[in-house]
Amino acid sequence: MLEALKGQEVHIHFLDGTSVKGGVLKELDERFVKYSTEYQTLYIPITSIRAVDVQTKERERPRVGFGQ
Description:
Elements: E1 9-14, E2 19-28, E3 32-36, E4 41-45, E5 49-53
Antiparallel strand pairs: 1-2, 1-5, 2-3, 3-4
C-alpha cells in the first residue's frame, strides 16, 4: 500500500506520538522506509509507523479581524 505513495511528500506519524513532515518517501521494502527531507535522510522501521498522510489540498486559513 505504501508503494503508491513513493515519490510523494508525506507526513509520517509514529507509535510514540511524534511525527515528521516535509519529506519525500524515496524507497521502501518490507522492513524499512527511506524518508528524505532537505536536511536529513531517515531510515524508518515499518513497525514504528502508526499512520502516513498525504496533503491533497491546501487548507484555507480563517480570516482574522473585522471585515466589511
